[in-house]
Amino acid sequence: MGTRAPESGDRRLHGDSPSLDEQPPVCGGEPRGSHMSRDGDGCLGNGGGVEESDGDGEGDDDDDGDHGEVTPASVDAGTAQKKRKRRNKKKSKKTKANLLAQQSSPPRVPLTTLFPCGSYPQGEVQSYQDTARISAAETRYNSRRHWEDETFLNNYRKAAEVHRQTRRWVQETARPGQSLQDIAQGIEDSVRALLDNAGLEPGDGLKSGMGFPTGLCLNHQVAHYTPNPGQKTVVLEQQDVLTVDFGVHVNGWILDSAFTMAFDPTYDNLLAAVKDATNTGVKTAGIDVRISDVSAAIQEVMESYEVEIRGKTYRVKPVRNLSGHNIKQYRIHGGKSIPFVKTRDQTKMEEGEVFAIETFGTTGRGYIVDDVGVYGYGLNHDAPLRVPVPLSSAKGLHKTIRENFGTLVFCRRYLERLGVDKYLAGMNCLVQQGVVEEYVPLMDVKGSYSAQFEHTFLLRQTHKEILSRGDDY
């Protein structure tokens, strides 16, 4: 939307000249219209009163009164009029002083005299009616000036440090025999403890906490699986490939990063291929770089790897219908996507943007489909504040979501942690009304193996800062 034009009450929009009070000269000069008060000889008029003295104490009396016989009364009147003349002589001297800062008629006083400071009045300012005059690129750039703010940078760096310390603990402790529920709970408890925010009071979860539900995917499960209440307990096994994807946010700025673990060296080349592809994408990214070029570089690197599993060789394939993305405040998906295969997309990366480059490699078809179950929910960022829903439970649930998560993605486990129960009917109502979006697990063909690595980085003016980088990946 463009900037609205000035209020219609401004007469200048209709062609009238501004009044003296509306636009005074900056440092001197004659107000517009003052020449109308002059006589034809260029001197200021007196409105039919006493003429200006010539400075020798004698004024011209021809027009001072009617000529006639001198009487005592006329002498007294003349004396009084002379007194008035004397008073007007002083006033005339002041008028001469004022003339020094005013224009003559015809105008002959140089502007350097009227404006000794060299600063001249600004013309009338009107906003453009054509809003396209402010380009979309300019608007987007102004909205990303936050990268110059130290508070913004510290928010992201704090989230990154929480992520590094938490994932280091996961890499050291996650072992076959553990349930995915215990691993997810350990990650989320660590994040909240490091942030010193349990997130149990309304509004606390918007200050800091989990950026989205912890994703723990095994083998052919590619993305968006988290253990939720009511699901069968899943236990980690020796031959499993485990992908760990979780986010940390501080004041809505989400640090998104993921890694993959395997307990059998058979899958080492699969992990190496995806890690190399992610690092290549990060290296290729930059200001004014076309997204299609980043995608092409990722695809080339990933497809150069092969992995042998139980005597059969597989080429590592990028997942064609998943992508990386930019991140906005409280929005994990900001609108731009970075596929893992070459496209014709000529969209460019821009200064100040935050991106999460994640790559998924698989030994399957390289194309994901929906799995059963629900991963989580997210309030649509353009959803109205007041929603006309038929169920009272849906209204209460909508209020709870706004107060605790905003537009951050959450899961059933997070709702029950807040003490919310009997929410499924209300949630389904919000999903059907388009107020809340539902996310499901994503999988490749059964029997395949997949891996993921991901980094979040900021495109700054002279360099990019890979915020999530650690000594592990």
Topology, please?
Blueprint: H1 72-99, H2 111-114, H3 136-142, H4 150-173, H5 180-195, H6 204-207, E1 208-218, E2 221-223, E3 241-250, E4 253-262, H7 268-284, H8 291-302, E5 306-309, E6 312-315, E7 317-318, E8 323-327, E9 337-339, E10 354-362, E11 369-370, E12 376-379, H9 392-404, H10 412-417, H11 424-432, E13 436-439, E14 442-443, E15 450-459, E16 464-466
Antiparallel strand pairs: 1-3, 2-14, 3-4, 5-6, 7-10, 8-9, 8-10, 10-15, 11-14, 12-13, 15-16
Helix pairs in contact: 4-5, 7-8, 9-11
Profile the largest sheet.
Answer: 6 strands, antiparallel
CATH superfamily of the domain at 137-374 and 442-466: Creatinase/methionine aminopeptidase superfamily
Rounded average pLDDT: 82
The CATH C-level name of the domain at 137-374 and 442-466 is Alpha Beta
Helix content, binned percent: 25-40%
Secondary-structure-based class equals: alpha+beta
* SSE sequence, one letter per element: HHHHHHEEEEHHEEEEEEEEHHHEEEE
In DSSP terms (H or I, runs of 4 or more residues), the helix count works out at 11
CATH topology of the domain at 137-374 and 442-466: Creatine Amidinohydrolase
| CATH architecture designation of the domain at 137-374 and 442-466 | Alpha-Beta Complex
Q: Could you tell me the strand content as a percent range?
A: 15-25%
Uncertain segments are 1-32, 34-77, 89-99
Write down the Rg. Answer: 39 Å
Form type: globular
Q: In total, how many beta strands?
A: 16
Report, as a whole number of angstroms, the end-to-end distance. Answer: 42 Å
Keywords: Aminopeptidase, Cytoplasm, Hydrolase, Metal-binding, Protease
Family: Belongs to the peptidase M24A family. Methionine aminopeptidase eukaryotic type 2 subfamily.
Binding site for a divalent metal cation 2: 256, 325, 358, 454
Cofactor: Fe(2+); Co(2+); Zn(2+); Mn(2+)
